[in-house]
Amino acid sequence: METLESELTCPICLELFEDPLLLPCAHSLCFNCAHRILVSHCSTSKPLESISAFQCPTCRYVITLNHRGLEGLKRNVTLQNIIDRFQKASLSGPNSPTESRRLQPQRPYTATISGTIAGTIGGGGGTSGGSARSSPATSSHSHQHANHTNHINHTNANHSPAVVAKMDPRISCQFCEQDPPREAVKTCVTCEVSYCDRCLRATHPNKKPFTSHRLVEPVPDTHIRGLTCLEHENEKVNMYCLVDDQLICALCKLVGRHREHQVSSLTERFDKLKAYQVSPGRVSDAVMEASKTSAAQTLENNLTNLVKRNSELENQMAKLIQICQQVEVNTAMHEAKLVEECDELVEIIRQRKQVIAVKIKESKVMKLRKLAQQIANCRQCLERSSALITQAEQSLKENDHARFLQTARNVAERVAMATASSQVLIPDVNLNEAFDNFALDFSREKKILEGLDYLTAPNPPSIRDELCTASHDTITVHWTSEDEFSVTSYELQYTIYTGQTNFISLYNSADSWMIVPNIKQNHYTVHGLQSGTRYIFFVKAINQAGSRNSEPARLKTNSQPFKLDPKTAHKKLRLSNDCLTMEKDESSLKKSHTPERFSGTGSYGAAGNVFIDSGCHYWEVLLGASTWYAIGVAYKSAPKNEWSGKNSSSWVFSRCNSNFMVRHDGKEMLVEASLQLRRLGVLLDYDNNSLSFYDAMNSQHIHTFEISFLLPVVPTFMIWNKSVMILSGLPVPDFVDGVASDLQEHQQQQMGMCRQDSPYLTGMKACH
């Protein structure tokens, strides 16, 4: 607990934090201590209110204060709660972790009593007559610092109610001045005084040296100053009854009920119980002494482990306190960021409000100016029309024929002209000028604002294996994401799969991973991969809040495609134009001789046009009606003037009429295969050193060679009749994985059939 207490101690006053402030640097400081720091910077020319910054006493970080001063800093509520709980635990008595650590065996007398009562009821010893008794023995020897309360509880369970009532009187405060004194709530073992709540707070503040005082539940004064006999008042206990497992005084042995019982001294019993922990039932002293050393060592180891565990718990608690402080700091940072972002939004809305208000006012002025002009035109036309109407009415009232004739014609023309141009003179009224078609619709923006929330890292994407495609050197990865709209970009990571099942360790080995960053779509094609190789893929969804990885996906490139190499074909073999079919042709074809061409008598073979040195590759051979062939792989150095499989550089599966066999280094072994075999599957797993043959139509395994490849190999093909066709660059079929686990056992069963010379070899020579 000392480590925990140091974590809760102010670096200024060296006491437990009181009203702690959370500084921006994540350290804490008492409010009063921070105030004293500010006061120390004051002067006549620099009052307290003008101080706007001070240094953290722990890390020297400069703390800037706002206009509120220290009140502007956040209170470390979490730390205050921890201190309150720590203080409560310190006051909870000797059973608390603090008290258990403080109770060292400085008083052997008390330790003897506590160990006797707590751990060895019925532990050992007997009467002279050899009577025995047994009672449960607890494992509390490791808690030898127990308190007197245990003694009281033990006595309550073994004595009459009258004795219990006598032992458990009301314990009064020994510090109160009032009469009667208040009831005590704690007894200080260090001071040997019992206190009520008020006197305890007055005499034992939460400051050193009082924090080291041992406080227990109230016990009588006599029990503090030394245990007295329960049956003989004022007599101190000085013996231990081995029959009743009880502390007794001298009078108990002389005249009491223990006078016939076997007893021992307290020191002897203390040493014996400390060194050995007995099991239920009695054992002889000889056995106890013989086991004393090992038992003491066991107890010491247990105590060491307990102390170590307590230290680990204290360290863990200190880390949790640091995390709590970091949570406070991060929360304060995010709260400040929230206020800042919201203030920016409010400021944007305020600015837009001003801009839109100015636009409305400008539109209003423009429309009113235009309407005013139209009103003025209407008024002018109205005045003219009114004047013309007045003049016409006066002409109609003229009774003088000469005057009427003189003015009537002129007035009639003016009236007719005014009537004809009435549409021109009267302006049109535009309803749009009334501002009725203007509207403010912020429903979309309101919906966006209502959806404001803190951003979280996107959910992990999911790789869709069924949508992924592959060729011999490319893989197209497809994935989906539930948070597609919140994802800023994707990152694709991949590496060659080595068979490691612990994907976490594999992912942590970052050196072997290839990374494709900043992918905007939910698919990507990776180029330049090794053919016939299995890869591990991860997809990472990224946004501003963080990133999350998908579950790993294992995807494989297809086998290496190849064709028959015309430069290697025997002169009595005919290849198709696409170099995928070879046919036996007895007529000798004109072909130039090259070192890589099959040339031996009867060695009617051809090789593929690729050399394979890695990966897992699968191809098939359509056998048609051919009943005499040999198909497999070989090193480049394999002889071309003899059958494949007759040397140490080639491995083949062969058929001669109705006999099937595998051949390597001149050794043959019969294998089982269907006479209806029409499609032979070949699986070359170079990385795992194996070459397997399958009946592809019936999904059946035929044979597997275990080969330690030293050089690149090339597919080889030999026929002695008919023709065969090659299908390469194929994905590995599903049925191949199903039989892989049985290959080793199958191989061991057939190895006994292997022999150097086979009668079928003679038969093949005869056929040849």
From TrEMBL:
Pfam families linked to this entry: ANCHR-like_BBOX, COS, fn3, SPRY, zf-B_box, zf-RING_UBOX
Compositionally biased spans, kind Polar residues: 89-98
Record PROSITE patterns: B302_SPRY, COS, FN3, ZF_BBOX, ZF_RING_1, ZF_RING_2
Record flagged with keyword Kinase: no
Ranges of biased composition (kind: Gly residues): 120-129
COS domain ranges (all copies): 396-455
Protein family (similarity comment): Belongs to the TRIM/RBCC family.
Protein's recorded name: Uncharacterized protein
Organism: Astatotilapia calliptera (Eastern happy)
Taxonomic classification: Eukaryota, Metazoa, Chordata, Craniata, Vertebrata
Gene: MID2
